[in-house]
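quick one
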Amino acid sequence: MIPPIASNFVAGETAAAAIDHVDDLNARGVHGILNLLGEHYEERENADADADAYVDLANALAERETDACLSVKPSQIGLGVGDAAFEENLARIVAAADCFVWIDMEDHTTTDVTLDAFERHARETDGNVGVCVQANLKRTGEDLERLADLPGKVRLVKGAYDEPAEIAYREKARVDEAYREYLTYMFEHFEDGIAVGSHDPAMIELAQDLHADHGTPFEIQMLTGVRERAQFDLAEEYEVYQYIPYGSKWFSYFYRRIRERKQNALFALRAIVGR
Ligand code: FAD
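structure w/ flavin-adenine dinucleotide:
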């Protein structure tokens, strides 16, 4: 069982619990993006098992007519085994899903293969897939030029991986500057399909201003348990999606949230006390 302090950040251990969480969010105007926790598998068996779980999840969503997307990590569905394993499992998930499928972005060694897979599926599904790009990577400006002409959605995040200085901005202020620059480019050059994957009020405000200037539609994406009040408030005017991790591998995810921001522990505690 997930202890209350961790359940603030994770929807539950099972797909059924995660879908119930989505139903609650939908009732309050927020959409859901479901992510089965798991990554860095080296064994094909493990990658196939999680891909199977995503296929089952897609079927369960369709059966219950629940409005939700999926978000998968390449190293969870086979990239650590080989490009072919990743591509086969991704194709299986995309084929099974009636819903939108996001591809998360992992460290820089995976960027090319992830973008190539996205491009293929974006063209084949006429835009029913999305990919994440990271503002801390210096290459992202060029990647956005390639992505601007493709169908599908692109989520801009600051970047969660510790990357070498030759290829990445490492200071927070420089990453924030890059985020602003890339987001501005997206609003100027993308016709639609922009996702702002950030809890940062400054970045969300910038997106609101750019939307007012250019009219380009966009959505805001935040994690379960982080700034939830803001998620519900923003949903009154904008499209808001909550990225919802679930599954038995909740501990390392929860630990990462706490290490990343000690205040998260306080927020979690406050949420429990306030229940
Ligand atoms: P930060 O720079 O961490 O914080 C900026 C400001 O936001 C803070 O000063 C505060 O005002 C507010 N804030 C931040 N956290 C909190 C909090 N816990 N409580 C209250 N206020 C807070 N990374 C990847 O590398 N690949 C991915 O595929 C990926 N997918 C993501 C999907 C989603 C939906 C989200 C939200 C993030 C994803 N990330 C991904 C993680 C991302 O790269 C960042 O590491 C993470 O979002 C932290 O950056 P930030 O923009 O939210 O704000």
